[in-house]
Write the structure tokens for this entry.
Amino acid sequence: MDLKIGDIVAVTDENLKGKVISIEGNTITFETDFGFPETYPTSKLVKITSVLSEINTLELKAEDFQKKELSNKKSKKNDFLEVDLHIGHLVDYTKGLSNFEMLTIQLNTVRNTLEKAIQEKTPKRIVFIHGHGQGVLKNELYKILDRYAQQCHYFDASFKRYKQGATEVEIF
């Protein structure tokens, strides 16, 4: 793999990515989004700059879909928004997308929806449908929601309606 300083890399078996800041033989040091340096052998890394433009295009599609969803799923009487995070609901084609890329699209949809709701003060409630699976999306969703503890709180959505596959967020 041909890496240079400034490239964006992701760790293959962890949810960790960042910008390359140092290369020493087969060892790469990169800075995470939180500003921490991490060092890994090149065998554990993948270069993701080549797919960033693809992801950005998919994110734009996800935002367009999200705008449609806002108008379609917003309940007038209860003032809540239902956002289905299943990847098939966010993009037209998943072929060729890695799990990391799909998760990135899903989490960006969460961030964008949450930011917009907080900024516009509406809707007051959002239900994020994440499904059951292995819990990766749910755990990452909770990490994002924990960062917004001053603006909202979250809990399992109605078991009767969603089983254990959704999280409800109330905006303050």
About this structure: The chain has two domains: 8-47, 52-171.
